[in-house]
Write a structure and sequence with these properties.
Elements lengths: L8 E2 L2 H14 L3 H10 L8 H10 L3 E2 L2 H17 L1
Parallel strand pairs: 1-2
Helix pairs in contact: 1-4
């Protein structure tokens, strides 16, 4: 029972991946950086702290931090495959 506000919704893995892709695409130049580093075979450090802050800023959403980290990694893989 929720007295104040709305019930919090738990995000599943697929939703987290979609949010991660949209988060990375919203950062200026980030997609180009991922592709450039991939081309010259350098690792790309994922923006994990920023992504977790973004998820925490969304209202009425629950998520597991480990799943969020895996989703961010999967989102980077999807962007590299494009």
């Amino acid at each position: 029972m929720v007295i104040f506000g709305k019930k919090r919704r738990k995000l599943d893995y697929a939703d987290l991946v979609k949010l991660a892709v949209s988060y990375i695409e919203s950062l200026p130049g980030e997609v180009d950086l991922i592709k450039t580093l991939d081309r010259i075979r350098l690792p790309y450090p994922p923006p994990l702290v920023g992504f977790l802050r973004y998820l925490r800023s969304l209202e009425n959403i629950e998520f597991d931090e480990e799943e969020a980290k895996k989703a961010l990694t999967e989102a980077i893989r999807q962007i590299r495959r494009r």
